[in-house]
TrEMBL record:
<dbReference type="InterPro" id="IPR046858">
    <property type="entry name" value="ChrB_N"/>
</dbReference>
<protein>
    <recommendedName>
        <fullName>Chromate resistance protein</fullName>
    </recommendedName>
</protein>
<dbReference type="InterPro" id="IPR018634">
    <property type="entry name" value="ChrB_C"/>
</dbReference>
<feature type="domain" description="ChrB C-terminal">
    <location>
        <begin position="191"/>
        <end position="321"/>
    </location>
</feature>
<dbReference type="Pfam" id="PF20229">
    <property type="entry name" value="ChrB_N"/>
</dbReference>
<dbReference type="Pfam" id="PF09828">
    <property type="entry name" value="ChrB_C"/>
</dbReference>
<feature type="domain" description="ChrB N-terminal">
    <location>
        <begin position="19"/>
        <end position="170"/>
    </location>
</feature>
Amino acid sequence: MDKWILLTHQIAQDAPNLRVKVWRNLKKRGAVLFKNAVYLLPYTKEHEESMQWICKQIRDSGSDASLFITESMDKKHKEEIIKTFQEACNKEYVPCIDQCSDVLKQIEQIEGTEGVTDRSVEDLKRKLSEIVKSADEIAKIDFFHAPQRDEFLEKIESIRKRIEKWSKKMKEEAPVVNTVYQKKAFLGKKWVTRKDIYIDRLASAWLIRRFIDPNAKFVFISKGENNLPKNAIPFDMYGAEFTHHGDACTLETLIKAFDLKDHALRPIAEIVHDIDLKDNKYNRKESEGIAQIITGLSKKLNNDNKLLEKGMEIFDALYHYYTTKTKGGN
């Protein structure tokens, strides 16, 4: 493209609102300030009409504006103009790229904490949609394919692939919540989960030892470690059978998978759910206090085995409380 529309204006000093309004209109249409002298747009009939409208707006407000149609003097001049457009769009893409990077970090965090749920997938889809919508507006004025656009598209594709992988994995794992497992097949086992246990893994370990496998042994592995102990049963880990399913945390999955009917487990599961998923689904008033206790112990002990030992006492106490309450005791 060698043909361009140029706009120059002299807006009165006492009209700052008009100056801002004109700048926003020019920016919205993709016009760039070339050599701090004139605003440029590639020539199209549509662009010409838009610039004429802006000129009229300036003049009607008592200031001055002029519009010119010209051509590039030579190849070097054309390349310089195109580079100006690309640099302007590069700056516009940067926030979108940063948002994509934040989403990818969030994905890593969710995978690292095994918190993949229908809710988290939908949340990421919504964020992706918002980012793409913003980028679509930039694409409308990216007349010369700014280099940052490629980086942005790569990140978008990466996010889409991860979401698709999650969705597929969750569909494959969905039957577990409809399967009832026999406790006798899980006696005397070694159970494995990630290090730095928190509420869901802690509560799940308590449930396993108290209701499924009294002699269960627990192993904690580092994030990203794929070599699980031989014959160990993973829980609250991405890709495991006993982990998050739909909007259920791992504790809820275990209760359903082993068909545990004890009524005292329900309020405990609701507390753990609210703390772990932070969605306030059950609005349990106890959640904040329990979360503070577990967080404090975790920081104080800084050791998974010691935290597990203390956690067993906490959940034993909770279970005793709700058992007594269920039976109508004081």
